[in-house]
Amino acid sequence: MPSPSRSTRSRTKNPGSQSALRSLNQQRIIECLLNGPSTQAELARQTGLSTATVSNIVKIMQDSGLASTEPTTSSGRRALNVRLNSNGAVAVGIDFGRRHLRVVLASLSYHIIAEESVLLPLGHQAEQGIQAAVALLDKLLADSGVERTAVVGAGVGIPGPIDRRTSTVAQGAILPEWVGIDILERLEEAFQFPIFIDNDSNLGALSEVTWGPHSGISNLLFMKIGSGIGAGLILNGNPYYGNVGITGEIGHATIHEHGLICRCGNRGCLETIASTTTMIELLSRGEARPLTPEDIVRKALARDAATLRVVDDAGLAVGRALGNVANLINPEVIVVGGPLAGLGDILLDPIRRGLVRHAVPVIGETTTLTMSSLNDRAEALGAASLVFQHAGIRRT
Predict the structure, then answer these.
(1) Distance CA 28, CA 33 (A)
(2) Is the per-residue pLDDT at 15 higher than 60?
């Protein structure tokens, strides 16, 4: 799959130190082993390191459980074959949200080693979010016993459009405090390993065709309904990024021409009708405290009349927007994700009605509409997949 953004090798702090040099050399060996087992002699040729250096690093990796060795024969001579263990190369997936942060560690076999999410303050600055992610990652690595040098890289999801030309968060993001920052450079400085960034909805789509049940689908639309509303596209088997990387901004499709002013400056955008922020504002009137997306799910499942009406209105608006998109790209599957995934058919039914009403009949009839089975983990899992795909590792 094509790269969503450039990636730069991390700049090692104090590059002249012995520990920094050993870490860099170990990373080079791991990168070679990502393509499969190799003998120590082959690793020396591929990395340009001496056989003694390779032997010493392989011994360290073996002692720490990152790699295993076995005798073999190469060119008629006895040799030692080296292979990465299942946690010998680890991808990090990071999902930044308006109010949350989730970090996952995943192995080569697409097994989740560890994961955790924490709350972030509303309106947090980029630096605050990044430092929280560094701290959470360090905790997960320590708790799971994974060496930092085993990390191949980190995929990072941002809830907003990303300009691929500059690697900056563009205007219109749910996190306006992050707009204009060279987020790739800042993340690489903080984490000190390769970083791959993408819009969170794009990563949601990627997760559905890697971790989810839709691996055989070539044309898929993933729609995240949260504080903002965005879509990720898989077209002809590949993520679609458009001209400068800003695609899927379905939350700013005009639904009511004379509706409320949206944060983008237009009127009547889908987000002003169907985002969780709008639902919370409508349903929190008369409540002792503002509701949360979890409260919306709970009250809807309990058949609260007001909540059901708000969800139904939102679903119809979402379906109308999806009908227009479906008429344009004719997806096989539309997956709905985000914090309201627990609503199931309560949300899917009005979306389906809106889709069928506004799509060409044959498209409405042949498009599968489903809720994400990955719930609120989709974006972080997609971020981990992004790392493996850059390393050429496909799920088997």
Answers:
(1) 9
(2) no
Question: How confident is the model over 289-303, as pLDDT tens digits?
Answer: 989 999 999 999 999
Residue 283 CA to residue 310 CA, distance in Å, equals 8
pLDDT band at 99 (very low <50, low <70, confident <90, very high): confident
Structure tokens belonging to residue 56: 């010493």
Continuous H helices in 266-377: 271-274, 276-283, 293-301, 305-329, 345-358, 361-366
Give the three-state DSSP class for 52: helix
Q: Integer distance in angstroms from the first to the last C-alpha of the chain?
A: 16
Task: Tell me the C-alpha distance between 158 and 175, whole Å.
Answer: 8
- Give the span between the Cα atoms of 301 and 3, in whole angstroms: 40
CA–CA gap between residue 264 and residue 47 (Å, rounded): 49
68 beta partners: 83
What's the Cα-to-Cα distance from 61 to each of 88, 116, 127, 182, 309, rounded to whole Å?
8, 26, 33, 34, 58
Name which of 395, 371, 362 is nearest 381 in CA terms: 395
CA–centroid distance for 121 within its chain: 21
Element (H, E) at 386: helix 378-390
Its pTM stands at 0.80
CA distance to 52, 89, 239, per residue, from 201 (Å): 46, 26, 11
254-275: average pLDDT: 93
> Where would I find the beta strands (DSSP E) of 18-76?
38-39, 67-74
Q: What's residue 394's pLDDT?
A: 61
Identify the helix (H) or strand (E) that includes residue 153: strand 151-158
- Per the CB < 8 A criterion, the answer to whether 225 and 318 are in contact is yes
Average pLDDT over residues 202-219: 93
CA separation for the pair 296, 25 (Å, rounded)? 51
Q: How far is CA 335 from the centre of its chain?
A: 15
Closest by CA to 148, choosing from 159, 158, 139, is: 139
CA distances from 203 to 8, 159, 221, 351 (A): 20, 10, 11, 22
| 288 DSSP 8-state letter | S
Arithmetic mean of pLDDT, 383-396 = 75
CB 262 within 8 A of CB 269: yes
